[in-house]
Amino acid sequence: MSSSSDPTRPRWFGRFNIYDVFSSFLPGAVFLIGLVPIFTSEIADLNVPLPLILVFIIFAFLWGFVIQTIGSTSADTDDIFDEHMAAIVDYSQESPLNVTEMDYIFLADIRRELELSIQFDDWDRLFKYILSYLEGTSRDRAIRLQALFLMTRGCSISAGSLTGLYVLWAAAAYDGILSPPFSFKQYLLIAIPPAIAAIYLRKRQNEFEKDMVMYMINEFHLEKNV
Q1: DSSP helix, strand, coil percent of the chain (3-state; round to 5)
Q2: Distance CA 140, CA 142 (A)
Q3: What is the reported pLDDT for 174?
Q4: In this structure, which long-range contacts are made by residues 110-115, counting pairs with CB atoms below 8 Å and at least 24 apart in sequence?
Q5: Which of 53, 120, 165, 224 is the least crowded, having the fewest Cβ atoms under 10 Å away?
Q6: DSSP single-letter state for residue 5
Q7: In the 8-state DSSP scheme, what is residue 15?
Q8: How far is CA 161 from CA 36, 100, 156, 157, 221, in A?
Q9: 118 CB contacts (<8 Å, ≥6 apart)?
Q10: Is the whole model's pTM more than 0.90, yes or no?
Q11: Residues 39-88: pLDDT tens digits?
């Protein structure tokens, strides 16, 4: 029995799954943990009680949602899908993916399935429809890739934000504006790993997004024709 069908659990509990952990909790947790060097240098001596851990988990989820909201304003998960579908319909437009015969079959299938006109071009709504449809099937590779895309996007934003905060704290330590727990040089060194992580995760984010779109099309085709 799934958690959503267990009558002994709250109804909201069943809505959370491993995808929420990847897409929301991890980016939020990365950011909150990264704030520790701003407030204390005694990281190894931290004694965290259980209630505080529960508060941390809640705030990590909440802040993860905020991060994803910020990320969606600059990089929606349907950007590549929009460009790819536009290129399938219009040969003169370029796609970030290779347009193949499978894509034309997919377009014909989706038009027939939803009785769409030739003029239909609301790819954002179609993107959400396909994801919703696949969530009700056993084909979940696209859903998993979407979770990985959201995780890398969120963690990239967290790492980039932490890099900026460390640089600001380094400047504050250098000018004597504040008395942070680390010195100017130490904060600059601390800022290097998240800066590298932000760049790397940004690259992986684009790769996951492309893979997600390809699997969306493939899985919808397989579900309808196999």
Answers
A1: 75, 0, 25
A2: 5
A3: 85
A4: 110/220, 113/224
A5: 53
A6: G
A7: G
A8: 14, 39, 8, 6, 40
A9: 111
A10: no
A11: 877 665 556 677 888 889 999 999 999 998 888 876 555 588 888 998 99
- Which tokens hold the place of 95? 């796609």
| C-alpha angle 200-204-210 in degrees, rounded to nearest 5 | 155
Instruction: State the Cα–Cα distance between residues 162 and 38, nearest whole angstrom.
Output: 10
Spatial separation of the C-alpha atoms in residues 39 and 41, rounded to whole Å: 7
The structure tokens listed for 225 are 């024709």
Name the nearest CA neighbour of 213 among 141, 142, 137, 149.
Answer: 142
CA distance 29 to 58: 10
In terms of Cα–Cα distance, which of 61, 51, 26 is closest to 153?
26
Long-range contacts of 202-211, Cβ-Cβ distance < 8 Å, separation of 24 or more = 202/152, 202/156, 204/152, 205/75, 205/149, 205/152, 205/153, 205/156, 208/145, 208/148, 208/149, 208/152, 209/77, 209/79, 209/80, 209/149, 210/80, 210/96, 210/97, 211/145
